[in-house]
Amino acid sequence: MNLLLKKDDGMKIFLVAGSIVLPVIMYLTQNNWNRLRFMFNLAAVISALIFGNIASLSVYQIIKNETVMMINIHAIFLNPLFLITGSYLGLYIIFRLLAAVMED
Q1: Which positions, given as ranges, span the membrane (predicted)?
Q2: What pTM did the predictor assign?
């Protein structure tokens, strides 16, 4: 068994650690600054709108062009704005779940 990290393991660790650490930081900072809670919520609303609109417009374009959806829909993952907003929504959901657990 090889215990050394492979070339792409660093990115995997970064992504998993970020999905744990960033929501915790969001939770701790929003407790100290109420304005941040509003900013996190506003960013989530804006991200949801952008994310949903990109997804719906991509599906609409595929239907309009009568192309094979299962092949062409994957091009959406090349859109950086889609990836950024989706990533933020993932972090935000974990942050809100953490906040709900800590308040109970």
Answers
A1: 12-30, 42-63, 75-95
A2: 0.85
